[in-house]
Amino acid sequence: MGSTSDENGSGRGNSSGREDSTVSEDSTVSEDSTVSEDSTGQPGGVRDRDSEGRARNARPRDGLGRPLPYGADGVPRQPEGVVRTPEETVAEAQRLLDEGKPFHAHEVFEDAWKSGPEEERELWRGLAQVAVGLTHAARGNLTGGARLLRRGASATEAWVFGTGRAVPHGIDVGAVAAWARELAGEVERDGRAVDAGARAPRLRGAGAGR
Known about the structure:
The chain is an all-alpha fold. It is built from five helices and two strands.
């Protein structure tokens, strides 16, 4: 997908690995992979990975997924391809959101939509879009952030409409969608980046404590 490196976060696309695909303002996770600075030059995108699936030569990134200089102390990436229960997914994603790491939370949601049942794929994908929207809003890409926040809200609400499950796995989809639209309007109105941790959504509703 064609967008600048400042507006992209690294996501997980196809079998070539997380480091090669991009998260743009127009999509949650691009299924088209590009050669990145982490490429080893090995055929077929084969990479030297550790026991948790992380590339050993991966460039460090900050809490919002932005690349840092090699050798810098970055925030550890989420291990790739972890299969969690829905309850574990919600708990881990909420923890990361509260810590101001929506980029990392999107990776947890992404694992859920890739490994979970087919009928729940669009729920987790919509939540991943919301997390990426918050990532962009925190980075200062306000237009892209607002667009993805609204897109994720619409996707999750459409899933609820189609399934009739308003609170899947304890997730208050209506509250999350309302939060996303409110934040989208705020960043467009105020024209400044937000504090990701301070504006983290409550996945289980306003009554759920931190």
